[in-house]
Task: structure prediction
Amino acid sequence: MPIKIYKPTSPARRHTSVDTFADITKKRPERKLIKIKKRTGGRNASGKITVRHRGGGAKRFYRLIDYRRDRLDMPAKVVAIEYDPNRYARIALIEYADGVKSYILAPVDLKPGDEVMSSKQRIEIRSGNRMPLEQIPLGLQIYELELMPGKGAQIIRTAGSTAKFMALEGDYATIKLPSGEVRIVSKDCMATLGQVSNPDAMHIRIGKAGRNRHRGIKPTVRGKAMNPNDHPHGGGEGHNPIGMKAPKTVYGKLALGVPTRKQKKYSDKFILKRRPRRNAK
Result:
């Protein structure tokens, strides 16, 4: 995916880069594969704001992605590569031999006219094909991994992400995730071969606040600029540091480098190696 950089005709334009969408082959979504996406404005069922800085933004339909791909041993032809406003990755419209259409996450270099298939047996080693881990050769790149057999893809779904299939021992397969975490999953879990499309999405620079407003993200006020009764960082005369050992949220909890995973979670036994901590020395 090429990224376009404009001439710096303004301060915002100087730091802006955009997607060229050169890989998109179809503009309008499939009508039967979309549904209304309700906007909450960051509020829960009681009307209370539980996620700050949400609101506005362009209207969008939600594309129904087939994460299970349970139409087995039936080849599907790629009809088009489409843009999805709800995710950074590209989606592919596929049509099965019996005429049924669905959306899947497109891997890198998937093009209209290609064929993909899902099976419980070993099939051709090609990007976009899906099969159980026990049927995949070691060392290959995978994405759209299940954590429970039959539940559908739960992890490794964002643009450019891929995991490495490291080992197969007994009833479990060892996977190295994009974060660096190493965990084991059942060998019966399904995974898709390849890497999620649009790996350059991480290099796009928003550049100005207006583009974030189109995404439904409102401006964020710094805690340092607030009063002491509004934020732990607030108060003082002029430009002062936060005056604390570590940054905190508006609610007084530590903000950076603090594990948020629940203690003694049931899946701890499946994690062989934790991901590297950002502030680890």
